[in-house]
Write a structure and sequence with these properties.
Shape: globular
Low-confidence stretches: 1-24, 215-225
CATH superfamily: MFS general substrate transporter like domains
Largest sheet: 2 strands, antiparallel
CATH architecture: Up-down Bundle
Structural class: mainly alpha
Strand order of the largest sheet: 1-2
Length: 429
């Protein structure tokens, strides 16, 4: 097969034991274009989420956002991710992964440009939802895409992917206020669409030049040993529900912070620019954990202790944000930021607890669809629970309950086995 300028044989997935991110040696030659495309997608996939909350002040002045509209805005990322989690499963049966990726880029780009031009609250929210649907599609498609192109390197590429997600989140958050001051909030939130366009280029090259895998050949070759998609039932396995609860627990916490952290810190006495920098600090802490966690988790048959560390980090960080003097805010924001490693943990467990591209796609869609559906209420309820003078205690108490959900999910998925095997039974395994 000719691919990316080199002749390579289709990569075949190993059978017989849980996939662990592999140490098997496969040549990277011929897969470099796909590698570049995956990394660019990772860098462009989160700016749309974190670029808005530092600018809620000026956006609210123009569009008159109230607490309810802000809460709805905060729940749109998880709602969009959930919708695409459910829709991607039937789409995977009919559409090539690379084509789905290009659709996701189109949605993200149109959404970011549209909301930058948004003339009122409904338009702003609708275009935000479109962008989130695009990002949600990326979230689901990336694990099986890694399994397709890099079954021998899923651990390191999961680490790179999650690290670049964290980097893009932090860059957008840190740049939001300076760009807004120079050019206005519309430019500040719209400029990131350019990165989505750039991320499409490698995939257009692969498909247009016919150097990508042909769906009728490679999908059959890479997934020849896979069971039919209909035979894999994540809803009947503790693997599926455990992964879903991890996504629900970590996402409810992360997206509530991405929406409300600057507001909480400003309420506690920080100025707007410093609060924006704290959001960037929170976001950038996803970088070290995102790089390390997949490499550790893929080597542990039972990685529950890693998940517990993230639960504890979130809890300690929240305690400091609520009760410690505002001058020490950076310490507690950083501690809570380390808890974001739970997302990297969940992302890595998808391919750790599946053996095949089909299994990876099914588990990815189910766990993210259910998980983000549950988590979507987090940012909205966080805002609704707050009343002047309560010190945000009810809001953070709600996030604490979601941390218990995360813990339970990690226990459920801890046992070393794969979804394809668990689906052969009839009960929860």
């Amino acid at each position: 097969m000719k691919y990316g300028g080199a002749n390579i044989a289709p990569l075949r997935l190993r059978q017989g034991r849980p996939h662990t991110g592999g140490t098997g040696r496969q040549p990277l030659r011929g897969r470099l274009t796909a590698l570049v495309g995956i990394l660019l997608i990772a860098f462009s996939a989160r700016e749309a989420v974190s670029a808005v909350s530092p600018l809620l002040g000026p956006i609210s002045q123009d569009l008159h956002l109230d607490a309810v509209a802000t809460g709805i805005l905060g729940m749109l990322p998880t709602a969009g991710f959930a919708v695409m989690g459910f829709l991607t499963l039937p789409l995977l049966r009919r559409i090539q992964l690379e084509h789905l990726l290009l659709v996701s880029i189109l949605l993200t780009t149109c959404g970011q440009v549209g909301r930058a031009l948004g003339w009122n609250i409904p338009a702003f929210l609708v275009f935000t939802m479109i962008a989130m649907l695009g990002i949600g599609l990326v979230n689901v498609v990336i694990p099986p895409l890694l399994m397709r192109y890099f079954p021998d390197k899923t651990g390191i590429l999961a680490a790179l992917h999650v690290t670049l997600l964290g980097l893009s989140t932090a860059v957008a958050a840190q740049s939001a206020i300076p760009l807004g001051n120079l050019y206005g909030w519309r430019f500040s939130i719209g400029i990131w669409a350019a990165f989505s366009v750039i991320a499409a280029m490698p995939w257009l090259i692969l498909l247009t030049a016919k150097r990508t895998v042909d769906h009728s050949k490679t999908s059959a070759s890479n997934d020849r040993l896979s069971p039919p998609m209909s035979a894999i039932k994540p809803w009947g396995s503790s693997i599926g529900w455990g992964a879903a609860l991890i996504f629900a627990g970590c996402s409810s916490n992360t997206f509530a912070a991405l929406t409300w952290l600057p507001v909480v810190l400003i309420d506690r006495g920080m100025n707007q620019e410093t609060a924006g920098s704290m959001l960037a600090l929170y976001s950038i802490l996803a970088l070290p954990v995102g790089l390390i966690v997949p490499l550790v988790v893929t080597r542990m048959p039972r990685p529950l202790p890693v998940a517990i560390l993230f639960v504890v980090a979130f809890a300690i960080g929240y305690g400091g944000i609520i009760f410690a003097p505002p001058a020490s805010g950076a310490v507690w924001v950083a501690t809570a930021g380390l808890g974001q490693g739970a997302y990297s943990y969940a992302f890595t467990m998808i391919n750790k607890r599946t053996r095949t591209q089909t299994g990876s796609g099914v588990l990815s869609g189910f766990s993210q669809g259910v998980g983000y559906s549950l988590a979507s209420i987090g940012p909205l309820v966080f805002g609704l629970l707050h009343h002047p003078g309560d010190g945000w205690l009810p809001s953070f108490g709600m996030l604490g309950a979601w941390l218990l959900v995360l813990w339970v999910g990690a226990i459920m998925i801890n046992k070393p086995r794969v979804l394809e095997d668990a689906s052969r039974g009839t009960g929860m395994h």
